[in-house]
Amino acid sequence: MAAGALARDVEAGGLAAWVRARPLVVGLVVVVALLLTLVLGVGLGSVRVAPAETFAVILSRVFDIDIGVTITPATDVIVWDLRLPRVLTAMLIGCGLAVAGATFQGLLRNPLADPYVLGTASGAAVGAAIAVLLPIQLVVVEFGLLHGLAFAGALASAWLVFRLGGMGGAGGLTRLLLTGYAVGSVLAAVLTMAMYVSGAELRQIFSFLLGGLGGSSWVRLIVAAPLIIGSSLLIMARGRSLDGMLLGDAAAGHLGIDVSRERGILLALASMATAAAVAISGLIGFVGLVVPHVVRLLVGPAAHRVLPISALAGAALLSAADLGARLVGDVPVGVVMALLGSPFFLVLLHRSRSGYEL
Amino acid sequence: MSSSDRRRGVALFVVLVVVLGACSSAGASSSPAASAPMSASPTASAAAVSPSPSPSAAFPITLTDDEGTSVEVAAEPERIVSLTPATTEILFALGAGDRIVATDDGSDYPPEAVALQDVATYASVDVEKVVALEPDLVVAGGLGFTPAESITKLRDLKIPVVVIYAPSVDGVDKDIELLGSATGTTPKATSLTSAMRSDMAAVSAAVAGQSPKPRVFYDVGYDDATGAIYAPAEDSFLAEMVTMAGGDVITTGDPNTYEIPLEKLIEKDPQLIILGTNPFYSPTPDAVAKRRGWDAFTAVRNGDIKPVHDTEITRPGPRLPIGLRTLVSAIWPDVALSAAP
Amino acid sequence: MIAAKGLTVGYAGRTVIEGADLSVAPGERLALVGPNGAGKSSLLRAMTGVLAPRAGSVELLGERVEHVPRKKLARAIAVVPEVADLPFAMPVAEVVALGRLPHEPPLTGLRPTDAAAVDGAIERIGISHLRSRDMRELSMGERQLVFIAVAVAQAAPILVLDEPTAHLDIRHQVDVMELLVDLNERDGTTVLAVLHDLALAAHFFPRVVVLADGRIVSDGTPAETLGAARIREVFGVDPALVRLAVGAG
Questions:
Q1: How far apart are CA A316 and CA A294, in angstroms?
Q2: Is residue B177 part of a domain?
Q3: Rounded to whole angstroms, how far apart are CA atoms A135 and C71?
Q4: Four-residue CA torsion sign, C157, C163, C167, C170
């Protein structure tokens, strides 16, 4: 934008406009927040580990440097095998859900969309319930039947909704959304039935539904990371298509976008990221819906800014919330996020009078 | 694919899942019976391996826990974490109480257990705290009592976790023997279980001849808001205890259900209502008598509603004989029992 | 430049355009008029490659429109988008910037040339005072101007507009018409506009095509095509009402 235009913006809106004019500043703040939650997340937990010991573990594991601080095997396990993978997993999931949420909101042109809008949540839950009820024990590279079927369930449900819902094209996006709702309802009923007959396994199904990062490990992180990061990057590469589609299918077509193809690809990528996230950590809400909106309020709706910053902000938010959940005493992470995030979101909405409403 | 085909497909899918769910939960309830004979073998092998009372010869040992998982215990455990109240009681009874470093928050007996650090609640296990204690043996509760994810996490970190659960009174004996092998206290375990068995057999025999057996309803729980009634499931631990105590036990009729409809209970017409009281559930007999529709029961009309302390009755641990005696004194108050050993 | 030959277009069950022949030469400025339901929008859709013809063809510089790759088509033809509701707040300048989509490299985004084109379009339409306003706060007329700016920013040799003045007041209507004349005469842009206002069509366009019941009934200068008899017959209106403006053309 021309410098003159920038000056006019700032004059017009004060601090809000200043922030909006500087997406890089916002990005930097988010990166700093992310690093901070990484440091705090690894250093704090229900067991007290001195900062020096934490550093010693990381330095010796990553760089093979011994700084002369004695580390017990327990401390080593706690920092390296428990906390670090958990914090990194939280970041990964937060990133994936935020990007998926932003994508669904743009694709469906609906600010209330979240990663689960195409029935992925119910699909994953039903998959997990089936896995819990089946008397089969299967573990492949630290992923049990639960994760595999949750993943498959999420993808299957998204595919089903997409096909039944008319691909969002001629049938309209409303039809797609409503189909997502309908399929989600059917699956929720199936889930309720499964929970009803589950007897003792109910607890396992329920804890999956609440969502949590307790099962994080290096192996799961390494398997899930390419799926989530890969999907996110591929979505970001198609960010301009997402922007174009905001004007409507016809206009996007006239601007050279192959709408049905782009829509299909983006939905598939976003569903993949969501399915991977749900398979690892159950149903964690709030991030996918709210983070993109907060980021839009700060830097505007252009995808090339919203997607990367949402990814980082989602990562920071979820790992911070997980830290809070761990410190309070293993409260479900979704609860912490909603309690902390909602008031912040409401304040932001209330403040945004200068034209950048939701 | 036409939309009606799709609808049929979805409906079929739903039916399939429900059927699968019903079948598998029926299957799940039969698996503990399958694993029970397996856990009997380590005791046999332990006994074969160490004819002398020296405990160190029994290790390293590979045990099969109640879920059928093989668990290797390299040496006699010195730092044990117990994640169920029953396990804590059993370990203390086996003389391994001084080796316990942490328990769950429900472990309230013996009194020494209360002072031990809590690392688990009903909902979750604090894996970090467990790891910090550097345990060489963790005992967890099966059937979802201890979250499966926590068990997996601990095992991934190379901590031996033995999962136990007892769906029957016999199962308690097996678990005591299993924990005996795990802690190198097999002689004590054997004597404990045989003492429990003979005492419970004696108590049971004392009332075996009594008739007619009253129809006993053991009130597990009641929801004032919905009127939902919780009763012992068919073939459950609790049903077995009541039967051993000489009662004609009223169950839900289904091994997987804990809820009984009011009409069914009216049809069964309990002659005696036993209220299992604990910190979470302790209604008074008056409150029970006033429950909607309960005045139809013989027990309510005759005022035969007896509260009993339910911990010893329902906890699958070494105090079961006390629980059995409690039940017998509620059902057959006039039968004299020999003093508890 | 763009030519429809024997074009027949329809939707499920209905035929909307029958055997239309319309040829637009480069640099022409042409208005498409007709009563509601005559098929004007469908004709435009077919000519811009959105609607596949049942019979006949549409050719862009001799190549069939359906064979032209999307991006190339978007660089050749700019269609003013329908005034749509945006789901999120978006400043006007960013909306106009979307017009550069067919030109910008997918990964790096707007280059200085693109930014210049955007600024130019905003200046030319005269909405500089709106550039940082949220789209959703604007009036219908202001939004229509923004969408025209999007197409202008696209800087394609052919500009297609479907009732671009529907929500504008008379002054803005005239402004837009004058802009179209300017784009056509100064930049050589080929302009194809569907208009419902016969007076505007007659006054600003040297060539008027009249569409009725899916057929092209007249194609020529305003005087030739918008005679009294034709107006009465096609539009069912007393031509005296329209006489004033038509006479001036």
A1: 13
A2: yes
A3: 54
A4: positive
The answer to whether the Cα torsion of B162, B164, B170, B176 is positive or negative is: positive
| C and B touching (3 or more beta-carbon pairs closer than 8 Å) | no
Query: Looking at chain B, which subunits does it touch, using at least 3 CB pairs closer than 8 Å as the criterion?
Result: A
Phi, psi at B72, each rounded to 5°: -100, 125
B contacts of A72 (beta carbons < 8 Å): 134
Say if the Cβ atoms of A255 and C101 lie within 8 Å.
Answer: yes
Distance of alpha carbon A67 from alpha carbon C147, whole angstroms: 64
The pLDDT value given to residue B39: 36
Local mean pLDDT, 10-residue blocks, chain C (249 residues): 83 83 90 87 87 86 86 91 82 91 80 89 90 86 90 93 86 88 91 89 91 87 82 78 51
Name residues whose C-beta falls within 8 Å of residue A287's C-beta, 6 or more positions apart in sequence.
A93, A94, A97, A98, A101, A314, A317, A318, A337
Please, are residues A127 and A149 in contact by the beta-carbon 8 Å criterion?
yes
Number of domains chain B contains: 2
User: At A329, which CATH number?
Assistant: 1.10.3470.10
Q: Is residue B48 part of a domain?
A: no
List the end-to-end C-alpha distance of chain C, in Å, as a whole number. 26
Task: Report CB contact under 8 Å: A256, C70.
Answer: yes
Q: By C-alpha distance, which of B115, B82, B83 is closest to B99?
A: B82
Are the C-beta atoms of residues B327 and B247 closer than 8 Å to each other? yes
Residue A32 in domain: no
Tokens representing C192?
Answer: 């194809």
The pLDDT value recorded for residue B227 is: 83
Q: Which pLDDT does position B93 carry in this prediction?
A: 94
Residue B153 shares a structural domain with residue B221: no
**Mean pLDDT over residues B99-110, rounded?**
92
How far is residue B308's CA from residue B282's CA, in Å, rounded to a whole number? 10
Within a domain: A298: yes
Instruction: Let me know if residue B19 belongs to a domain.
Output: no
Residue given tokens 């006007």 in the structure block: C92
- Residue C6 · residue C29 · CB < 8 Å: no
CB contact under 8 A, C102 and A255: yes
pLDDT bin (cut points 50, 70, 90) of residue A12 is low
Work out the minimum CA distance from A294 to partner chain C, whole angstroms: 12
Amino acid letter for position C155: A
What confidence score (pLDDT) does residue B144 get? 78
Tell me the residue range of the domain where A98 lies: 49-350
Q: Are residues B161 and B270 in the same domain?
A: no
- For residue C12 the two structure tokens come to 């499920």
Alpha carbon B99 to chain centroid distance?
23
B149 → closest Cβ in A193, A201, A214: A214
Q: Which residues on A lie below 8 Å from B129 (Cβ)? A: 46-47
Encode pLDDT of B13-46 as tens digits. 444 444 444 443 333 333 333 333 333 333 433 3
For residues B166 and B213, state if they share a domain. no
State the number of CA atoms in the 13 A half-sphere of B7 facing the CB. Answer: 4
Q: What is the pLDDT of residues B46-95, one digit of tens each?
A: 333 444 444 456 789 999 999 889 999 999 999 999 999 999 999 999 99
pLDDT value at residue B18: 46
* B149 part of contact set with chain A, CB < 8 Å: yes
- The domain in which residue B316 lies consists of 208-331
Q: Rounded CA gap, B10 and B2, in Å?
A: 12
C-alpha distances in Å from residue A173, one per residue of A103, A161, A253, A303, C195: 14, 12, 16, 20, 30
Which residue in chain B has the smallest CA separation from A200? B143
In chain C, helix, strand, coil percent, each to 5? 45, 25, 35
CATH of the domain at B315: 3.40.50.1980
Contacts of C176 (CB under 8 A, 6+ apart): C145, C148, C164, C165, C168
Of the partner residues C50, C89, C133, the one whose CB lies closest to the CB of residue A301: C89
